């Protein structure tokens, strides 16, 4: 992200910013906790799904706006990095952060998919993304794509599979189709995270692609009404 009047980024913040290859536990906890809070509020609220989609879209627009302002004002950028640095990456110090993409992905899931699929795809984003990264950083010895490992992908699959299995057990009549649905949904979730290797933010690809995949999958297996 370019800055105005040739201003330079304050290098003193480098010590609090993490690289993508770092374990960065605080960012993962932030990712899970904010997403979990959002899901809790969604469940507890009487607002419609579309109303929530509009609210989250506004959050996304606000996030993009702040990031654009950061690119034009070094003072604002330094303030944001000072406040949010512990959960930011070095690649975000002069570029867009993950927050607006996170909110945009969730809002698109809420706008375009059924309630059950939107919830599941959001849960994939909230839990599978940080867990895939966690296992990928710690144990990712076998690279299958840039910044993506077999170990991280397997962790993502099992996370999405288990989330789907426990969710559909409470939402549909028991049967073999539930297990098949959960396994395929797990694969879809893992693939939606791998797509981000092609310079697309996984905060966007996970809810959008997994939601689309599960919508098509539900057409054939009919787990959700």
Characterise this structure.
By secondary structure, the chain is mostly helical. It has one domain. It is 68% helix and 2% strand. Strands 1-2 form a two-stranded antiparallel sheet. Strand 1 and strand 2 form a beta hairpin. Helix 4 runs antiparallel to helix 5 and helix 4 runs parallel beside helix 8. It is globular and about 55 Å long.
Summarize this, please?
With 225 residues, the protein is mainly alpha-helical. It has one domain (9-221).
Topology, please?
Blueprint: H1 25-44, H2 49-72, H3 74-84, H4 98-112, H5 115-139, E1 143-145, E2 148-149, H6 150-169, H7 176-194, H8 202-221
Antiparallel strand pairs: 1-2
Helix pairs in contact: 1-5, 2-3, 2-4, 4-5, 4-8, 5-6, 5-8, 6-7, 7-8
Sum up the structure in keywords.
2 strands; two-stranded antiparallel sheet; disordered N terminus; 225 residues; single chain; mainly alpha
Instruction: Please report which band the strand proportion falls in: under 5%, 5-15%, 15-25%, 25-35%, 35-45% or over 45%.
Output: under 5%
Q: Structural class of the helix and strand makeup?
A: mainly alpha
Gross morphology: globular
User: End-to-end span in angstroms?
Assistant: 45 Å
Mean pLDDT value: 89
Instruction: For the largest sheet, list the strands in their spatial order.
Output: 1-2
Q: Report the radius of gyration as a whole number of Å.
A: 18 Å
Question: Count the strands?
Answer: 2
Name the quaternary structure: single chain
Order of helices and strands: HHHHHEEHHH
- Can you tell me the residue ranges where pLDDT is under 50 for at least 5 consecutive residues? 1-9
Largest sheet: 2 strands, antiparallel
Number of helices: 8
When the domains are counted, the total is 1
| Helix fraction by DSSP (H/I, runs of at least 4) | 55-70%
